[in-house]
Amino acid sequence: MKTAETKEFAAAGARGLDAAARASLLAAVTLGFAILGAAQGRGPIPSSREDIYVLHSLREERIVESSWCTPERAGFALPTGDVLEERFGLWSVRAEPQTGRIADPETSKVGQIRTCTAPTLDPRVFNFYAEGKLAELPFTGNGDCRLVQADYPERGLAALRCYLNLRGLPLDYQGGLATSNTLISEAVLGGETDPPGYLQTSVATFRLWKTLPVGVKEGDETRLSGDRLYGTTNVPKPLSK
User: Which of 176, 90, 103 minimizes the C-alpha distance to 135?
Assistant: First the structure.
């Protein structure tokens, strides 16, 4: 029998989320972002100015009435009754070298994350805050989670994408960005979805950018344009007729 949470997911795609659905999705959203696992590869990139991790998360605890999640800590409004605190274990993954396909999503536990999630005026968007450790590196982050589609890839599931702008890292790093590909279901804890057959909850990338050497200029966001972002700066323009 389907739970009320799953029914709300199914209805969300067609009509947005009412208060109950928002709370249910909110509960599952954080499930998704808890994300992490150590990257697999042949070793560090020579002369690299970043560290990259590919990870998987497993939710270990959900707290509906949280005293830890406060507006001062999270940096956003926390409507009464709509805030969730959740804790996740962070796991490294093992991929097939020939294809990149994940062969083992729980190779080794490499960290933990503690999160706060709260709804916004947009029923498909949730504010997201996190504190955690990855490979003994502490971090803090703010961002959001967005519902991509309810009842997809099948009824009872929901696909989301989340991000965190990272700060609070050791002095070796100037910052970072975490992004997730998240799938949530009726199952509250563990890595197996309900309906079964999918990995819960997120597969994510963490890119940690190292502090630049003396003399290297930091980025200037005013220099970014559509041409620069999409690599079209040097594309020849069509000849005039």
Answer: 90
* Preceding amide of 201 cis, omega within 30: yes
- CA 61, 35, 184, 67: dihedral to nearest 10 degrees? 40
Locate 7 and state its tokens: 């029914």
Under the banding of pLDDT at 50, 70 and 90, the label for residue 201 is confident
Q: Kind and range of the H or E element at 26?
A: helix 19-33
The amino acid at 161: R
Cα–Cα dist 34/42, whole Å: 26
pLDDT one-digit tens code per residue, 48-88: 899 999 999 988 888 887 889 989 999 888 776 678 899 99
What is the maximal distance between C-alpha atoms in the chain? Answer: 68
Spell out the domain ranges in the chain.
4-214
Strands (E) across the chain are located at 50-63, 84-95, 102-119, 125-134, 137-150, 158-167, 173-184, 202-210
Residue pLDDT, tens place only, 4-31:
444 443 444 434 445 444 544 444 444 4
Full-model pTM: 0.74
